[in-house]
Amino acid sequence: xxxxxxxxxxxxxxxxxxxxxxxxxxxxxxxxxxxxxxxxxxxxxxxxxxxxxxxxxxxxxxxxxxxxxxxxxxxxxxxxxxxxxxxxxxxxxxxxxxxxxxxxxxxxxxxxxxxxxxxxxxxxxxxxxxxxxxxxxxxxxxxxxxxxxxxxxxxxxxxxxxxxxxxxxxxxxxxxxxxxxxxxxxxxxxxxxxxxxxxxxxxxxxxxxxxxxxxxxxxxxxxxxxxxxxxxxxxxxxxxxxxxxxxxxxxxxxxxxxxxxxxxxxxxxxxxxxxxxxxxxxxxx
Amino acid sequence: xxxxxxxxxxxxxxxxxxxxxxxxxxxxxxxxxxxxxxxxxxxxxxxxxxxxxxxxxxxxxxxxxxxxxxxxxxxxxxxxxxxxxxxxxxxxxxxxxxxxxxxxxxxxxxxxxxxxxxxxxxxxxxxxxxxxxx
Lengths: 285, 134
Description:
The complex is a heterodimer. Chain A is an alpha/beta fold. Chain A has helices at 4-59, 91-106, 120-128, 146-161, 209-284; strands at 76-81, 113-118, 133-137, 167-177, 180-189, 204-205.
């Protein structure tokens, strides 16, 4: 049986750990709140640009653009969004596992795909695996602004445009609720699976549909990337909040059971002392 | 006077929302003035100001490119960045301007950087001139 002092030490250190995890939980919960708000603020823009893009792409059938047509796939791009830091439960490993498995299933050689990594964890993993990480960005703020990822988003879209790869998938953790996030695969480019909007508006184009698509489609694709990032950030903070909450709960449980054995050991020591005294007194008689 | 709803939205959230009498801005094809009842239209915008005229007063919003979507009773500006004139961080714009100018002086040879620096310079100049109310 562990000595009294050992147990006491363990209790103190577990208490300190639980204070830290508790603090981290609170930090994550406030970041999570802001993250959800950011994702919400993005919705009006996304809805509007989607509506306009679809109306134009559907409405102007004669207008064509490389980003709307699928071409034979020689190389596939995977945009993987993870976090920079761990301590978020299975948040990163879920995303990475799915990407890794998909790649193993779909491709035989490393030349058939390219990875674009947002977030340190994903980048480190794929670099270590010796996979082709073409673009990377780490250190994205917890509340990312559009300008921060504008560069990587437009170079990604540019790589599709110049034929570096012929299709682009994005993998990220979609925020469902505070306790549930699911890994989502979305085909970003080419924009083939567009649902027709409910109300089609026929627009006048200034100057013409093609030139508008030329500007609009890249902007649309960049917004999709940004939207995925916001979504992923919201679920990252939710996942971390949960992980930290579990850690705190576990620590408290451990403290409870440790205090119990501490009290037991203390009681045993007292009982033993009394027995010894009584025994000693009896021996004197 | 008749008014229409105007929304300026960016990925970071809505920037401007109001009823105005007229919207005037510079599209890639030239200056555009839009009044209520305009036919549906889409036009890409230049880096510049969107002027929103209401009760004889003009609100200015700085946009860095983007789109103008017009419907008879609503106008939506979809821009990647946009700021109202009194929200502009002039100091930051000044710094961006200096940076861009310096880059333009240094890297006259490389075309890609040149283009980006030029755009950055135009955005910075646009912000500064709008913040100072023209």
